[in-house]
Each structure stands twice: as structure tokens, then as C-alpha cells.
Write a structure and sequence with these properties.
About 30% of the residues lie in helices and about 35% in strands. It is built from 4 helices and 7 strands, in the order ααβββαβαβββ. The mean pLDDT is about 95.
């Protein structure tokens, strides 16, 4: 329940990190991702300043199979390059097989050493990409 509350609290993430939103031509939200800049309390995996982290990538049903997730990840990678980062790290739920396939197709490796629990009872898998 506490992790679900974090997922739903977009306003807090927008204040403490950067909440990026993909919209269609009509302004409908198609997807979001939270970029965790250095100094953000949302950085849980990126412990070194050369590491970038994004979290909570989510695509609405209307945005699926339209490249929205890929575009959001590409925006994160562009920002990581812009900020001079050497690596991008992230967490993903074990059941998010579509996300895992996307990450692997974009060069991410499964990083078992990053697996963790952001809150008790929620286990997430780690992924990393060297830039």
C-alpha cells in the first residue's frame, strides 16, 4: 500500500524530482517517467554522481504499442548524456516483461546486484546501461 501511494503521488515526485509526461496531439496523457537528478530523494539506485536513474515509467493503455515507452527512455538517455553520466540504472517489477524486453532491446543489462526492495514486500529487478 505504501509503495502504491508513492506511485500515485505524482505531485510529490514533480516537486522532488522531474516528472516527464508524454501527451498526444489532443493533450491526453500517454505516459510518464520520473527522472531522478543528482540530489533528488527519489534516487535510490544511482548512488554515485556518474550514475543516472529514472523510475516509475508508465504508459497508459492508449499509448501502448505507439513507441511512447521507448520515447520516454530515449529522453532519459539523452538527459543522461547531456548531464555527463556514465551509467543509467533502474528498477523494474519482475512482472513487467514488456518493459524488460524494451530495456534489453535498448542495450540495458539485467543487473542482479541492483535488485532490491524500495519498501517491505515489494521486490524489484535492477537493470543498467553503460553510456
Amino acid at each position: 500500500d505504501s509503495y502504491e501511494a508513492q506511485l500515485r503521488d505524482a505531485a510529490r515526485r514533480a516537486q522532488e524530482a522531474e516528472l516527464w509526461v508524454a501527451v498526444d496531439d489532443d493533450g491526453a496523457v500517454l505516459g510518464t517517467v520520473t527522472w531522478c537528478p543528482v540530489g533528488s530523494p527519489w534516487r535510490q539506485l544511482a548512488l554515485a554522481e556518474h550514475q543516472a536513474e529514472f523510475r516509475m515509467l508508465s504508459v497508459a493503455r492508449a499509448g501502448r504499442r505507439r513507441g511512447v515507452a521507448r520515447a520516454l527512455v530515449e529522453a532519459c538517455l539523452a538527459r543522461a548524456h547531456q548531464d555527463g553520466m556514465a551509467e543509467v540504472v533502474l528498477w523494474s517489477h519482475p512482472l513487467m516483461l514488456g518493459a524488460h524486453a524494451l530495456y534489453v532491446s535498448m542495450g540495458f543489462d539485467r543487473a542482479y546486484d541492483l535488485d532490491g526492495n524500495p519498501v517491505p514486500g515489494v521486490h524489484l529487478w535492477g537493470f543498467r546501461l553503460a553510456l
